[in-house]
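Re: the request from the purification team.
They wanted to know what the chain is likely to look like in 3D before they choose a buffer screen. I agreed to run a prediction and write the result into the notebook, where they can find it.
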Amino acid sequence: MPKKILVETNGPVTTITINRPEVRNALDKETALLLAAAFRAFEADDSQRVAVVTGAEGAFCAGADLKETAERADYIAWAGHPEGPFHNPLKKPLIGAVAGHACAGGLGLALFCDIRIAEESAVFGIFCRRWGVPMSDGTTVRLPRLIGRGPALDMMLTGRPVKAEEALTLGLVSRIVPNGTAREQAEELALQIASFPQIAMLSDRQSVYAQEGLTEAEAVKIEMALAEDAKQKEAKAGAARFAAGAGRHGEY
């Protein structure tokens, strides 16, 4: 039987693929737990700096496997439960390579990512609206924080499909790429991010997540504290490289 979750590495980049194309990569309980385990393994591996998550054979993720849910609705909340795959943001960057449909829990998976790259034919939506299945994957929290309450409620209440161009306009995705290239381009971006000095990049990323719900003064204070380690360990050396002529004219 094929593995439901595939994990590959290329240097400092881990690619995690949901491998249930026969059901558009819907997550049954086993696959959801395997996905959570893959995320934890990536976090624990110091040789890995950035992860890409995608789906097999031209589909991202169709959410929960409703055939399984029809028989037993005792699944754990994917975001709220400590063992859920989308519980807390990872400690390292995660890029979503979205092809085909990212609906219901698949949208939740996309929202769990730091960056979302969508193919031209990608479609997002809360299609479980028609079946009475609630969102427990973080979408009701992360979607309005990303695109605003009004557009989020429009998607949430209507269950309508949102195509890639609209998703880009809403800020739901970061960029659109030709069909068939999302994984490749996500992995290229992951390698670029992995090449940067990591302490400063990770502390800046942590500050972005930490500022939610804080006043500006509170958030800036946290930013200052998070920046201190990079200032001591990376900033001087990096500035010296710049002063010596590296990185001019937009080169990384």
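For the purification team: Residues 198-250 form one domain.
Please add any questions underneath this entry.
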